[in-house]
Amino acid sequence: MTTSTTKTKARNAYLAGVRDGTPFMFVVVPFSVLFGVVATDAGLSLAQAMSFTVLVIAGAAQFAALQMMVENAALPLVLLAALAVNLRMAMYSASLVPYLGAAPMWQRALVSYLNFDQTYLTSITRYENSPEMTVPERVMYFMGVATPIVPLWYSMTLVGIFAGASIPDAWALDFILPITFLAMVAPMLKSLAHLAAAAVSVVVALLLINLPSGMGLLIAAGAAMVTGTLVETWLEQRK
């Protein structure tokens, strides 16, 4: 394969990623604006709020940590809450290794930074459905998905910071988070193991809802992984 052909395929993969990532812009806008509003209401300065959103770039973890900070929780609990919410990122990273593990270190580092729900779920679905993709094409596709999302995440957080409390409660922007998760996760529940893991996680999370922020979610995630593994093993044995 010539260098020109390789570059063309990589460019096409990037453009396909941009196309597939564009619909998420409609979710990112209200979600990032909401974080800017909440961060301002919590007393964070412009520099603090923007540093938070640029360095962490993980909405659910940002909201969890911010809520704990508002409640004057101890720093270890704040970090634990963010870790619990973002534990899934470790699972995301592990599942990307077979597809992107051979990429150069700097590319893997960039993918790690941009590895959040929308980029991961969109990319892993593409990789599974297109096994013929090369590593450079996979990397470029991942970057393409992130391209329309990340600049909006930064800029609309800034809009939310400046807008502050002027945004009416009637907009109900806080519903974006659960709606986003449902919209992304539901199509991936393709097997009995997936369904069992999801059901167990919901039940355990609800039972442990009174635990400190993040703890119930952490335990529910662990229970879901164990359940999924057990069901998958059982199904394999039946075959």
TrEMBL record:
Coiled-coil positions: none
Lipid bilayer topology: Multi-pass membrane protein
InterPro entries in alphabetical order: Brnchd-chn_aa_trnsp_permease (IPR011606)
UniProt superkingdom: Bacteria
Keywords: Cell membrane, Membrane, Transmembrane, Transmembrane helix, Transport
A Pfam family that the UniProt record links to this protein: AzlC
Any single Gene Ontology cellular-component annotation: plasma membrane
Biological process annotations from GO: L-valine transmembrane transport
Keyword Transport found: yes
Record localization: Cell membrane
Chain ranges passing through the membrane: 21-40, 46-66, 73-91, 139-163, 170-186
Keyword Cell membrane on entry: yes
UniProt record similarity statement: Belongs to the AzlC family.
PANTHER family associated with the record: INNER MEMBRANE PROTEIN YGAZ (PTHR34979)
Listed name of the protein: Putative branched-subunit amino acid permease
Organism: Yoonia sediminilitoris
